[in-house]
Predict the structure of SDR family oxidoreductase.
Amino acid sequence: MGPALFSLTGRTALVTGSSRGLGRAIAEGLAAAGASVIINGVDPERTRQAAAALVKAGYQADAAAFDVTSENGIMAAFKDFDARGIEIDILVNNAGIQFRKPMVDLATEDWRRVIDTNLTSAFVIGREAAKRMIPRGCGKIINIGSLTSELARATVAPYTVAKGGVKMLTRAMAAEWAAHGLQANAIGPGYMITDMNQALIDNPEFDAWVKKRTPAGRWGKPEELIGAAVFLASPASDYVNGQIIYVDGGMISVL
Ligand code: NDP
């Protein structure tokens, strides 16, 4: 009991899409709780700089730039971790993209790109991580869902379908891997201030809608996901499996 319940000392965490945005805040939070973190992004320079900033702040961090939609890239990254003796104890499947278009105008390739980036990547990286966690008898997988894991919204169909899938992938992971000592859970962020949402934040009508629609009356800050992430990464959640925790200022609970 006590602080050790939430301690990540000695653990290694891979956070996909952590060169900026929510992933970066989560990586920093896990590092502050004692984990050694591996920063990921597509852009190698931004990824390297994000890891360097964490090291400068006194944390343990490394960089692994790869595209989460590239199976070859994922396999190469895990091969490199294996060769260097790096064991991923905590995987946060966070990398994601948004693409807004009415469904009647949506090209199939854009549908596939969003599903691949937001959902299939979590399966492939989850599979590679779990293969290595299962023989060790422990591991934490945290998938990043969304309010669209539950609720649809016009113009974001593939995102909604992918995030609904992330919720069910989390349950599928729990169903297969809980008996091996792994915990798979998800976090569903509400409307948070990141690059992905900059156009919405800058739109006065949308900004007013978010503030009115959210019981907390404001957008969320990336660092407000840290509590849930540390909980789901730590021994405190060892009997929690298949859950999605909404960190949304209450939005999903009200009409
Ligand atoms: P940002 O656009 O701010 O950051 C996205 C991050 O993902 C970057 O680090 C980017 O890397 C990385 N990334 C994007 N595509 C890939 C890829 N193919 N391979 C590897 N890395 C990739 O997004 P957010 O921080 O806002 O979102 C993070 C997650 O949270 C997403 O899954 C999103 O759906 C989810 N979410 C966000 C909400 C919000 O309000 N912001 C609400 C609910 C869910 P690079 O820097 O190299 O481009």
Notes: Strands lie at 12-15, 36-39, 61-63, 90-93, 139-144, 182-189, 244-247. Residues 144 and 187 are 5 Å apart (CA to CA). The pocket of NDP is lined by residues 16-23, 40-43, 46, 67-69, 94-97, 117-118, 144, 146, 189, 191-192, 194-197 (CB under 6 Å).
